[in-house]
Amino acid sequence: METKKPRILLCEDDPNLGNVLKNYLELNDYDVTLERDGRLGLAAFQREKFDLCLLDVMMPHMDGFTLAEEVRNVDPDIPLFFLSAKTMKEDIIQGYKLGADDYITKPFDSEVLLLKIKAILKRNEELNKETENKEYQLSSYHFNPKLRQLTHNDNTQTLSPKENELLKMLAEHLNDLLPREQALKKIWGSDTYFNGRSMDVYIAKLRKYLKDDEKIEIVNIHGNGFRLVVQD
After folding, report:
1. Whole-prediction pTM value?
2. Separation in Å, CA 109 to CA 21, 64, 112, 116
């Protein structure tokens, strides 16, 4: 069976460096999407699924730091590297504060970059295997995201893909805030008014499924998001 290649979003406005790096990574079995500016990079990220982002800091239309914030709003866990000619300590600190896994200053050794990419993707793969099989005990309910099943006593409800993903995100943020924008961008693809109304419908469905246990509640934090609260 053919192994699926890891997908990398590369945003780099220098055409020479961008093409060389894209070709080098593709020779090493990565599927690379190259975009020349931040706005195009964000559009690609919202349109497709990636395993890692390589972002130049100085790009037209939207810089790498702003793009990183947008990416993190959609997927807080995706590995993210900055590639930058900016070597000032303040820039490097800002990169890490935005959640970068690495900040690589130009010029850099492509082989070293490749080894760093391999290491972080391997780490993420191991973490994903752990969370893939994770099940949740939510008071008297048992939730199995892999099977999309919510069980209470002897009754099992099979969830739709969106219901399942939303409950999973709530469970991952148990007793903590799940930001509305984060859920909308990850599950619906964008934070629009109509997607927001759709999410409210799904929240109402989940509340109905969980209504048989007074110790569990989905709380609306007005303007911010939702909390799945489970009392001890």
Report:
1. 0.65
2. 11, 20, 5, 11
The model's pLDDT over 45-60, given as tens digits with 9 standing for 90+, comes to: 988 889 999 999 999 9
Residue found under tokens 């303007």: 223
Distance set, CA 106 to CA 82, 87, 88, 181 (Å):
10, 8, 12, 34
Give me 25's structure tokens: 């990574």
